[in-house]
Specification:
271 residues; 5-stranded mixed β-sheet; elongated; 4-stranded mixed β-sheet; alpha+beta
Amino acid sequence: MKFKEYLKDPKDLNEYINNNSMEKEWSLILKGWIPLRPSLLDSMEIDKVYHVTDIANYDNLIKYQNQKKQISTFTKGKEWLASGARTRGGVLVELRGKTVFVSPSDLFSALSRNGYRWIQPSLGMKRSRAFATKVQEKVYQYLRDQTNSNKIPKKVMVGLLSTAGINPLYNLVDELPKNEKRDFIKFYFDLIKKEMNKQVKDDIFKDLLELQDGNISNEVLLHDYKIIKTWSIDQEYEDENNLIHNYIEKNGINYQGMIKRTVLNDIKKLK
């Protein structure tokens, strides 16, 4: 979709983003991903964190202030973020809020439909994968007990893509009645809450420290946030710059003007 086309009907873009970037909770469970919900982890206050969005999603950012819905933010940025990770970019906001998790490197977390972020225990995260495997064994046992299916593999497949034809559990869970899916998701969150003790939290953070890369941004999962300032970011085309500038100048919270993309490389210098 071209820039001018998306501006004509931003509602269509919102619908596209919501349908394509938000995952089903049970799908993430089958992948072995770990939810980072405020109810599972301790929250702490944080300020001077930043988020890049576009004008089609800026109103939603305002709408979800002071709510539990999580957004991905950063305190250490990179220029490539100016174009947005899940949006078209062009709008930078400074926020203050609460966080349950600060990662020294970008988690590339997934957003589920309930507004919570999940992380994938990759091959390099040995401690986190051990936790995910332990949890996944109990998930598989739950499915065996509830469905009496012989399709449940004996070997735990943490990290395997849960798409039709790849993970044999995908179709099995997908075809469950809604109430059984809800029970499955509730079982999982109760299990995570029980198993995720301080040692597990420390292990996940240690894994992330070992994986950190100086060439990428960090990630702060923020909720109960408030928008403090807004900037437009210089884009490739002049007409795009004018459209973003005019929209944010009219609708933005505490608009500070336009900045160069390179500012994101040293975000701490931003006044």
